[in-house]
Amino acid sequence: MKETSKSRPWVRRVLKWLGVLAALAVVGMLVDGWRAFGRRADGARKARMERSPQWKGGKFENPQPLRNDFWLMMRGMMNVSPHATPSTPLPTVAVDPARFQTPPESGLRVTWLGHSTMLVEIDGHRVLTDPVWAERASPFGWIGPKRWYAPLIALDALPPIDVVVISHDHFDHLDDATISAMKGWGTTFVVPLGIGADLAYWGIPEDRIVELDWWERTKVRGLEVVCTPARHASGRAVFDSGQNLWGGFAFLGDRNRVYYSGDTGLFPAMKEIGERLGPFDLTMLETGAYYKAWPDWHMGPEQAVVAHQMVQGKVMLPVHWGLFNLAFHGWTEPVERVLAAAGRAGVTVATPKPGQAFEPTALGELGRWWPDLPWETAEQSPVVSSHVSFEAPVPALP
Q1: 110 pairs with which residues across the strands?
Q2: Among 140, 211, 287, 321, which residue has the least CB neighbours within 10 Å?
Q3: How far apart are CA 287 and CA 264, in angstroms?
């Protein structure tokens, strides 16, 4: 007679305990990440969100849908570049706090701190974008994308910051530990709709939080900050997709204008951003963590150059690369492909080392600081956004 699990009680006991252990693991992860998951908006904050033109069917939506190809993504996971993570330490520049005591001669200076964290000095104001000082872009301290180098300046060594902007709530852009450490600052936090609930939950006073819908603007100590449209998504847990808005930002000073895209796919309203708010002395454009399976979530290098032209930028700073491994491509590929596309388009690109400051009107000799590694070209791995049409032809990708 063939044995079954019914005739072997030990099998049932093992399965039972495996189920218990799995449940405990899930509970443990929820407890570990609970604070990092944030808090959903309610009350007057939620009511304001629901009045937004972007709020549809119980969540925020893009005008153009996001394409996702699950099976293509699975294939990509089987072909990750052997150079997706640096094999040697990166040549970073430690940030000396004394540099901020001397204002930039042009009125505009930027220090790239890696990924999408930039300290922008513009016409007497200081703006910090998407600050992430955590070791991992994750709700957990033991798993998730790990940064390739330590923060280049301590949070408490930063000069006084006028404005902190958060483009969206993904973990590589919104870090709860970093935000909590800022609760005693005299800084104004400017964020898209809904994210204020997270900031308040982590200790930021409500009177220092300004939430904006797309195209809304605010003034902070004389600097105008505009929340611009973006084509992306939001969510920090399993069931909160689209519960907070995402966006980019324009910083409009007396002499200089800067555009930060946040995370975004290419979309037609970039032309309107340029017409209404440009031209920009500097664009800080998301260029990394792309793949053809999700072409509408991130622009990719070639389309970032197109976006720079659409918003009427003068100098382009490629961001969203150089700190975390968030995709399948080689870690130097984003900047290599940006430079190739920019060379064809006649676009000026700034390539500072992480921690290095530069003035867009006086770039000087930034040069190549990354190693010469194999990378796939746009022909080999194209990234082309879907559901996008333009009045004028977009420059063809190679």
Answers
A1: 120, 358
A2: 140
A3: 9
Q: Counting beta carbons within 10 angstroms of the beta carbon of residue 224, is it exposed (0 to 12), middle (13 to 18) or buried (19 or more)?
A: middle
- Give the distance from CA 131 to its chain's centroid: 10
Check if the beta carbon of residue 357 is closer than 8 Å to that of residue 110: yes
- Alpha-carbon distance of 76 to 267, in angstroms, equals 24
Q: CA 124, CA 109: separation in Å to the nearest integer?
A: 10
Q: How far is Cα 67 from Cα 294, in angstroms, rounded to an integer?
A: 6
Both tokens assigned to 64 = 């153009």
Q: Are 120 and 127 in contact (CB under 8 A)?
A: yes
Residue type, 286: E
Is residue 213 within 8 Å of residue 52, measured between CB atoms?
Answer: yes
Rounded to whole angstroms, how far apart are CA atoms 376 and 333?
A: 7
The three-state secondary structure class of 238 is coil
Alpha carbons 34 and 262: distance in angstroms, whole number: 25
Regions of the chain where pLDDT drops below 50:
1, 3, 5, 24-27, 29-32, 391-398
Give the tokens for residue 305: 């150059």
User: Phi, psi (5° rounding) for residue 157?
Assistant: -100, -5
**Closest residue by Cα to residue 190 from 172, 158, 213, 171:** 213
Q: What pLDDT digit, counting tens, does each position of 223-273 carry?
A: 999 999 999 999 999 889 999 999 999 999 999 999 999 999 999 999 999
Domains in the chain (CATH in brackets) are 49-358 (3.60.15.10)
Task: For residues 199 and 218, give the distance between their C-alpha atoms in angstroms, rounded to a whole number.
Answer: 18
